[in-house]
Structures are given as C-alpha cells and as structure tokens.
Write a structure and sequence with these properties.
heterodimer; A: about 400 residues; alpha/beta; Rossmann fold; 4-stranded parallel beta sheet; 8 strands; about 10% strand; globular; B: about 375 residues; Substrate Binding Domain Of Dnak, Chain:A, Domain 2; 3 domains; 15 helices; binds iron/sulfur cluster
Chain lengths: ~400, ~375
C-alpha cells in the first residue's frame, strides 16, 4: 500500500480529475450535463452522464480573483449587475470558455432544480436557449408550511419519473434501476459522512477551521454520488475525529477564542482576507447554515423520500424553520456569535435575513453582525466595513462573556 | 366625443385613487376585499367567495418602513407594498394572496406572516412545470387549498357553482380586455399611453361586473367613431409594468402610441383564453399552462422573443420598449435574450430602467426622444 494521503490531498486530486475527466468524457462521446448544486444528480450519475456544476466553477473562478472578466462579458450582453453573480460568471464563461480555475466543456443538456432559488430557472433557461440544448427542470415548490407537504411531494415525485423518461429519450437507453438504487445508497452515505465530519466542529476547541468547509463543499456538490466522494468524506471525518480526541484546535498557531457561525455563501474573491480577519482575532467560524443543504438522506429506492429530501434544504423552507435551524446550530455548536453575509447576489437568502437575525438573537441572546458582500462579484465587498463589523462583534461577544452569558 | 372622454376619465380616476376606489366598491356592494400580489392570483376564487380582489402592484410611495425586512436592492413593488401594509393602509383587507414567482416573493410570504399577521397571508405557489400533467394536478390542489383558506379568512363557503360563475365572468372580462387593447391603439388622441395604462389598471380596484360593463361600453363607444388618422409611430411595451405616469407621458409627448403590450400587469393577465374542456379549476390551471413568453413561468422554449416579433408584425409596430422595473430579476434575465433576438431581426428595442418612484424623468425624456427619432 502506498502511504496514506490526507483528505486535503485527495480533495485536490479529485477536483483536478473532475475537470479533466469531463473533457475525456466529452471526447469519448459521452453526454455532459451542467447541473445546479443541489439537484438529484442520482439520475444523471445512473445514466452515465458526466455532470459539471456551474456554481462550483463560478466559485472557483471567484476564489482565483478572476470573476470580473466573466462578469464584464455578461454585463456587456445585457445582464444586470443585480443578477446573481454566479450566473453572470457562468454565462460569461459559456462564451469565453477559458479560465485558469479549470475548464468545463459545454453541456449537451442542462439540469435545473429550483430548491435553491428561482433564479436558477432563469439562468438555466438562458443557457438552454443560447446553446439550443434540452433542459430538465425540477420544480420544488417553496415550502411555506413547516414541513414538506404531501401535495408538494406527489408533484416532485412525478417530476422525477418524468425526468427519467426525458433522460431515456436523450440517451436513447433504458434507465438502469439497479444502478440507480446503488447510486442512491452511495449518495446517502456520502451525505452522512459529510454531515458527521462537519459535526466534529462541535468539539471545543473545534478541530475544524470552518473555511475548510467552503473548500470541501466543492466535492460534496460534485462527487456526492461516487465512491471516491464517499471515501473522501469518511477520511476527512476520521482526521477531524482524531484531532478532536487529541484536543487539537483549528490552527497551528493561535487559540480559538470565539466560535461563530457564518450565514450564507463565502465571499470567494476575499476568501483569505475574510478568513484572516477572523483568525487574527481568535474567531473560528466553526459552521455555517450552508453545509446541511447537502445532507440529503432518504431510504434507498424511496422516490417519495428522495423528493422530500431534495425539497428540504433550508432556503426552500419557511422562516420558522430557518430560525429554528440556526437556534439549534447555536446551541449545538456552543456559539458565541453569528456573522450574516448579506450577499448582493442572493435575494432568497438575503430578504429573510433581518427577521431571522432578530428572532435568533431573541431566542439565544447570541450577538451577531451583518456585512455587505457578494459571493463572486468583487465590487460589492468592502474590507473596511467587514473589519468594523467584526470588531463590533468581538466587543459584543466579549461583553457577553463578561456578563457570564457564554454557554447555554 | 364628450361621452367617451367621460368614460375614460372615470376609469383613470379609479386607477389614480386605489384606496378610495376600493372602499367605494366595498361600500356599494357590501363586499369584503382581498389583496392580490402580482402575478396570476386566482382572483376567480376571491370573487366566488363574494369578495373583491384588489391588485397590489406597489405604488408611487416607497417609504422606509420596509427597511426592517429588506435590503436596499429589493424591488419597489415589494418595498412599497410592505411599507403601506406596515403603515396600516391595507387594514381594510380581509386577506392577502402572496405569490411565489420569484425569490423576493418567497421571502415576502414569510416576512408578511410576521409583519402583518392580521392581514391573513395566503401563500400561492404555482408549479413551474405547469405543462406536465402532475403540474396541472398540483395547481388544482393549490387552488383547493387557497379556496379553503379564503373560506376561513372570509368566513364563508365557496361553492362549485359560484366558482363556475365567477370563472365565466372572468373569461368575459378577459375577452373584453383583449378587445380593448386591440382597439385602444387606434385612438391615440383619446387614449394615450398613460390613459391606456390607467384604464387597464382600474380593474385592480373595482368589482369585476361593474368594470367589465364599463369597458364594454367604452369599446362600443370607441368603435362607433372612426379610427383616428394619425402619423404616430407605433410601439409595444414589454416588462412587468410600465409606471409611473410621468414616464408614460413621455410616449405621448414624443408621438408614440402603444398598440400592444406584453406587460405582466396588463396583457399577460388576460391574453390567454381558457380551453373549453373541464370544470373551472381545470380551466384555470389550463390557462397557466398555456401562458407562454412570461418571465415568471418556466419556459424552456423562451418564446418571449418570438412572441414579441409576432406582436410587432400583427400590429405593424415600429419598435419595442423593454420596461425594466429595477431589481426585478426574472425580467432582467430575459433581457439579453430578447435583445439578441430583436437585433437579429432588426426590430428597434429601447431598454428603460424604471422605478415606480422617480424624482425626475429628464434622462428618460432624452432617451425616448432619441428613440422616437430613429423609428
Ligand atoms: S447564489 Fe442564490 S441566487 Fe445565485 S444561484 Fe445560488 S441560491 Fe440562486
Ligand atoms: S422581483 Fe419582480 S416579480 Fe419579484 S416581487 Fe419584485 S417586481 Fe415582482
């Protein structure tokens, strides 16, 4: 056996392969799909359709500080600065077709699930139109009631079946239900290891520096249905567990003084500066609202369960759910504070944020701040404002500790 | 002629005084009222419940009360509605239907439940896969759910017969509107862009029987006089809505007549006639399934461009104005495609970003002037 690789090495290799293999697949005449980040990839994986994720790709471009070029291209075509920057990056990439953050071949079909937002419907419609390719659309109705209703489930399940028909039409092959069943079970296992790994951050100090969550997220998006993905998250979990047992904290130097949650997506172009500001103050972002979105678990072969699971991520749920979700996180991870990213791109996450903040604060007493940013558009973020807000948070957290408010 | 002018003035007046108009209608009919967010609320159910559906399309006053719930980059329709609701302007409503066509609206459903609980928010979630059989079924179930919620809020029962009757009335209303928009463009001297908009919008604040009667009378009166000879250029408006009046006035000023529209607040409300088969709820679901070229409904064909070209040809129009309400992202996403398609066939397209609250239209004046000149 060769020496055991670390999960970070495996992550890097898998990501690399993910982009390279897409081109091999394309050359071999396989179909390539572009899909939204929390879509029932099980169907595509089963059908042997190679799947790429524009949101991942846009994030990678953002993290490389190269988003502006693509954004300019889209805006030049008439896209508004108000549109989600992932969309602007991707719609620009679709024509430029080259980025140093890795390349994706153009898709043969497009696979869209609006459990993350309705914005993706518009974005993907446009890709399908411009490239003249088929689109598969999963409509996951917004859950304004606390639970996913039977009415919604029935409709979503019917769409899964309709999508299978559509896939059979596109590939010209019968859908392999045995393989489907296998992919379903691997996908659930991967989700479980992802969740277990992220839960290691409950240890004090947390062995996990939460910005790693953002890095590993790329893989939970694109490798959820594969054995390699599953093994990666198990490996990561084992590493974190060992660190937690040994009482090792998130950083080589510096102590974890405050534990906070980050609401929303990272500011990719400022990943390292947003991270360093926190680290310098001893703030460890131990978790985020986001990771649970890929905890998609259901019984094998249970299409109703599958439909429900895909409709259950927090942005597709009501305010009460969103509040309870964060309140639970605060208690579970024993948080000192919360950082809300008011993300110029994402109206669905933003426009409930104020009310969520008020109610979470009322329920937990944990202080929080909101800062303005954007996931990929570098123009919407100000380091100075960010630092001021974080300073204010530290003061509030310190104050609360002094008053003995830390803890439950 | 005087008579026509009076008919027009009466409807314009209704549109310009929404609250007063609704209250008048409530008093005259003894009915309750239910608010309806954009777009495609099942107004027939409200009517069948014996109440007046009231269109809630924002307004000229945005205020700042909504800052408690929304960041600055939220559209004015939602901000204005929220401001007014928090101020108590809508307290006369027995319930409000809030739709979920865009991400902003999903949040609005949730915010309003907390912000104005006394307004009885009833969420309306239409299927995006509306052409699938399962989508139609979902929508019919959605109508049934809304029906029950309305019954609760209005303390009444809604019978199947009442729904059938209301649906028939609405089909008559929509038919009248299709005729009206077809006819109105021939009389720019009587009905300029601003009046056209107000006449159509008045339907949001009146009882439907009364409104339909008035619009039919107006059509009849118009058809009795011969169409005006005018040298005006013909334009088509597309977008969510075209407001405020100061903006619309610029068309008349520059010799532009609106001959057709693809506005969510106007023709998208009534351009689709229901298929003949089935009961009212089935036909209502069918109307949504048949509604194409609308930015708020999933359309993998993206038929809006083709539809605009058809409209242009049908009315022999000279150009199209894309009325982009600021921060309305579904509409923003359609623009680059429409733009490309219009360029390909050489149809002049003017993109105008509007806010319902505009301090000054000077900049727009120049742009519309220039556009009128190139036509
Ligand atoms: S960032 Fe928000 S708006 Fe953009 S794709 Fe993601 S969920 Fe949708
Ligand atoms: S964004 Fe557009 S569709 Fe959504 S509420 Fe605002 S105006 Fe309406």
């Amino acid at each position: 056996m060769d020496t055991q690789k670390t999960s970070k090495q495996v992550l890097g290799e898998l990501l690399d392969r993910h982009y390279k293999e897409a081109f091999t697949a394309k050359e071999e005449g396989k179909l390539v799909a572009w899909a939204t980040s929390i879509s029932p990839q099980e169907l595509l994986t089963t059908a042997g359709i190679y799947t790429m994720y524009p949101e991942n790709h846009a994030a990678a471009i953002g993290a490389r500080k190269q988003a502006q070029e693509f954004i300019n291209h889209s805006e030049g075509k008439g896209y508004s600065v108000d549109n989600c920057s992932y969309a602007r990056v991707n719609l620009g990439y679709m024509e430029i077709l080259h980025s140093e953050a890795g390349n994706m071949p153009l898709p043969d079909l497009i696979f869209c699930c609006n459990n993350i937002c309705n914005t993706v419907i518009k974005w993907y419609e446009n890709i399908a139109k411009e490239l003249n390719i088929p689109m598969i659309m999963f409509d996951m109705p917004f859950n304004h009631e606390y639970e996913v209703s039977d009415q919604n489930t029935k409709y979503m399940k019917a769409q899964l079946l309709a999508a299978i028909d559509q896939i059979e039409g596109i590939t010209g092959k019968k859908f392999d239900y045995d393989k489907f069943s296998e992919v379903m079970s691997i996908s659930a296992e991967t989700s479980i290891w992802w969740k277990k790994a992220s839960l290691q951050a409950r240890a004090k100090p947390s062995p996990l520096n939460g910005f790693d969550l953002f890095n590993y997220m790329a893989m939970i998006v694109c490798a959820r249905g594969t054995e390699e993905g599953r093994d990666l998250f198990k490996l990561w979990h084992d590493e974190l567990e060992a660190k937690a047992k040994a009482g090792i904290g998130p950083w080589r130097e510096g102590e974890e003084l405050y534990r906070v949650m980050w609401d929303g997506i990272a500011c990719w172009p400022y990943l390292s500066s947003t991270y360093k500001t926190l680290k310098n103050l001893g703030i460890n972002m131990v978790t985020s609202t986001y990771p649970d979105s890929w905890y998609i678990v259901y019984d094998q072969n249970d299409l109703d369960g599958m439909a429900r699971a895909y409709s259950s991520n927090y942005v597709n749920r009501n305010l009460d759910f969103g509040v309870n979700n964060i309140v639970d996180i605060v208690r579970d991870f024993d948080l000192d504070g919360i950082i809300y990213h008011s993300n110029r791109s994402c109206k669905l996450m933003d426009f409930r944020q104020f009310e969520v903040q008020r109610r979470v604060e009322e329920a937990t007493g944990v202080p929080s701040v909101i800062f303005d940013g954007d996931q990929t558009d570098p123009r919407a973020f100000s380091q100075a404002q960010y630092e001021t807000r974080i300073q204010a948070l530290v003061e509030m957290m310190e104050d609360r500790k002094k008053r003995g408010g830390n803890g439950k | 002629m005087k008579h026509i002018n009076d008919m027009i003035a009466e409807l314009v007046d209704v549109a310009n005084h929404p609250v007063r108009s609704v209250r008048t209608a409530m008093e005259r009919t003894g009915k309750k009222a239910v608010g309806c967010f954009p777009i495609y609320t099942p107004d027939e159910l409200i009517h069948a419940a014996g109440a007046i559906p009231v269109g809630m399309w924002g307004g000229p006053e945005m205020g700042n009360l909504s800052d408690r719930y929304y960041q600055t980059f939220c559209c004015s329709v939602v901000k204005a509605n929220t401001h007014q609701a928090l101020r108590g302007d809508y307290d006369f409503l027995s319930a409000v239907l809030v739709t979920a066509y865009c991400d902003t609206l999903k949040c609005t459903i949730e915010n309003w439940k907390v912000a104005v609980p006394h307004l009885n928010v009833i969420p309306v979630v239409y299927p995006q896969n509306r052409k699938l059989e399962a989508g139609r079924q979902f929508l019919i179930e959605e109508f049934q759910r809304i029906r029950k919620e309305l019954e609760k809020a209005l303390e009444t029962t809604i019978t199947d017969e009442a729904i059938e009757e209301s649906f028939a009335l609405y089909e008559a209303y929509r038919k009248a509107m299709r005729t009206f928009v077809d006819v109105a463009g021939r009389y720019p001297g009587l009905i300029d862009a601003t009046a056209r908009h107000a006449i159509i919008k008045a339907a949001c604040f009146m009882d439907k029987e009364e409104y339909t009667d008035k619009i039919n009378a107006l059509i009849e009166a118009l058809e009795a006089v011969s169409a005006e000879e005018h040298g005006q250029k013909k334009i088509i408006l597309t977008g969510l809505l075209a407001e405020p009046d100061e903006f619309l006035d610029l068309f008349g000023e520059n010799g532009l007549v609106v001959v057709a529209d693809d506005l969510a607040q106007e023709s998208r409300q009534f351009r689709v006639e229901a298929a003949a088969e089935g009961d009212a709820l089935t036909r209502m679901a069918g109307r949504i399934a048949d509604q194409d070229g609308c930015s708020f409904l999933y359309d993998d064909e993206k038929s809006r461009g083709a539809m605009l070209i058809d409209l242009k040809n049908k009315y022999n129009a000279d150009g199209i104005v894309y009325c982009q309400l600021k921060f309305c992202d579904p509409e923003e996403f359609d623009y680059p495609i429409v733009k490309r398609e219009m360029e390909e066939v050489g149809i002049p397209l003017l993109y105008i970003e509007i806010e319902q609250q505009m301090d000054s239209v000077e900049q727009l004046r120049t742009r519309i002037q220039t556009f009128a000149e190139i036509l």
